[in-house]
Amino acid sequence: MSGTKRNADNDGSSIGIDKDNAPPPPTKKISDGGNTTNAADLTSRDYYFDSYSHHGIHEEMLKDQVRTRTYQMAILNNKHLFEGKIILDVGCGTGILSMFAVQAGAAHVYGVDCSGIIDSAKRIVKDNGMEDKITLIKGKIEEIDLPVKEVDIIVSEWMGYFLLYESMLNTVLHARDKWLKPGGVIFPDKAVMYISAIEDEQMKYERIDFWENVYGFDMSALKEAALKEPVVDIVDPKCIVTSADPILNIDLNTCTEEDLSFSAPFRIQVERSDYVHAFVAYFECAFTNIHKPLGFSTSPQSKYTHWKQTIFYLSEPMTVCEGEEITGRITCKPNVGNVRDLDIELDIKFDGSRSKVEKLIEYRLR
Q: Whole-model pTM?
């Protein structure tokens, strides 16, 4: 797999068209009530929302049982929180969380989504006899008005790859500040991201070193670009070489949008003598404001989720011995040109008996 995900978008490349005689930009119907929009006028946000109009991405998320079952349990096992309450579902997609809330006794649910999937969601809600309990609104949370002044609970599946990539967390925080009543509950309300180091020689060869000899041709010019893009994929737990260290703690009840740009030190212990080819990040999410807290993990040791793990490959492996320590700092902030992309830096320091590394590496998750 190259890039950040198996179905990564490909914009194509320049084919040398004479700009003076070039045809006008094509038009594309984005999911906005069928209105035709000039492709040249589309922003990254438009493409992001348009991608969520396709049923395939929702099929993948719904089939992720860790994700969907955890939300179902958190809602249905806490009917005392939902009975007679007003709920806001941020980024409602197919409406699955809204329908869980109705099953839990909610008085009314307002589901908001900017993508065209909401048109299908309206039919789904009606087909399940919940149209009197669920109102679906098409638009951006930052731009719409709700028919109510406040809500009792906000539910949202806002997490992205690397927790923050293409995530809706800033949108959830906007909804929280605008509509959540004092003492209201957010589902989920806590998240923690971790970093660890792995041995991954075979996959590094297939993804990175591959470019050194492609059918006998030297394509190393692309190797540097490949190294700069983290890979989202499944990590075999047997590849883990070190302990893990938390690098980001989020409390949705109190955090701000500024907290989503972060810089954190890490210190991880080598647990066996081996080689380190990459660092890996994963996250946990929790529902803590309920009768019996529960959550899920996207770690390599846990059951598969569609978020997988995020891998940061090194240009050269580190030779590490059991008991040694790798320290460093990870910094993450939205890319200036496209705020849904992430600029990530790893500042690594390692003073081992068989190798020494002091290096700052830049990545872009896109």
A: 0.85
